[in-house]
Each structure stands twice: as C-alpha cells, then as structure tokens.
C-alpha cells in the first residue's frame, strides 16, 4: 500500500486535487477532518485541550468551539505550539489506526492523506512506519489564490494573513516528489493529477 501525503497552501486547490485522486481510485483520508474529530465530544484530544485552554473555548452546549480555539492561537506561536503538542499526537494515533485497517484492504493500493500542514508539522510521520512515503504538493501563485479565498468569504487582509501563516511554496517544494501547478482551468488540474497518478501507479 502506497501512502501519499498531499498538501498545498490555502487556496491552491489541494482539496480539488484530492477529490480527483479519489475518482481515480485512491482512498482519500481527510487529515484535517481527523483534526476536527479529535476535538469533538469524546475525541482523543478533547479533555486535554479543554484543560490546557480553559472553559472559554467551549460553546453553549459545552463542546469545543473550533472558531474560539482558532482565535486563541492565531498569531500566537506559543499557544499554537501548545495546541499542536496535544492535538497532533492524537491525530497521528487515529491516522495510524485507520492506516492499519486499510493495510488489510486489497483495494486500498494507494492512500492519499489530504493534509494542510504537512510541511509545518510531523502529521503523517508515524513511528509504525505506516505514514506517507511520497509527497505531492499542489501550488498556485499568490495572485491566483487570493481571489479564490476572497470568493470563499475572506477579506483580502484575512486571506493574506492565512497565506503568510503557512509554509512557503519553497518549503513545500523542498519536500515534494511531485508538484502540481494549479494556475489554469479545473480541467488542467484534473489532467495534472492524472499524470501524477500514472506515475504513482506506474500505469
């Protein structure tokens, strides 16, 4: 089973590329989704995060409000590091459990880990050896990403701040085995994903 780490800056088109990999036959694991699950009621990191950050991050029903957590850590490196020290091991533990199950599935020849913070973290790097061994990066120029983010509802200032808070294209590219440049049409992106898929599966 080949495990691929798929990443890209916000607005680059990573999720669209992940969907195309899924259409081609990959099992796509939403690592950001696992991040939400570990903070949900009963999640692996819920109680520890509440203990570390206090009741101010809870909503009216007593559940962790991810928006409040984001506000607590954005632009605060120490607070972000504290959150990641709790949540990232929990995410990796859940990810490892899922990959262990998938390894028994003969149809899961290629697993794609759809993950925003590959270059910025050790997510997907598992002590069991089941983590990703190939990295695919989706990138697009800032002038292409910015309008996409504004279209999603962010202000230009918010979009630029989000982009600046992530790894640079150069940092992601340094880890990449394959780079997909998404500066054209959706059809162009699909074609580029298809080319990488052919290399991954040696078709």
Structural write-up:
With 203 residues, this protein is an alpha/beta fold. It has one domain: P-loop containing nucleotide triphosphate hydrolases (Rossmann fold, 3-Layer(aba) Sandwich), CATH 3.40.50. Helices cover 52% and strands 13% of the residues. It contains 9 helices and 5 strands. It has helices at 14-24, 31-39, 46-53, 66-73, 77-102, 142-151, 156-165, 169-175, 186-201, and strands spanning 2-8, 27-30, 110-114, 134-139, 178-181. A 5-stranded parallel β-sheet has the order 2-3-1-4-5, with helices on both faces. Helix 3 packs antiparallel against helix 5. It is globular and about 50 Å long. 33% of the residues are buried.
Reading the helices and strands in chain order gives EHEHHHHEEHHHEH
Distance between the termini: 16 Å
Model regions low in confidence, pLDDT < 50 over at least 5 residues? none
What is the fold-level CATH name, i.e. the topology?
Answer: Rossmann fold
Q: Count the beta strands.
A: 5
| Portion in strands | 5-15%
Number of helices: 9
CATH fourth-tier homologous superfamily: P-loop containing nucleotide triphosphate hydrolases
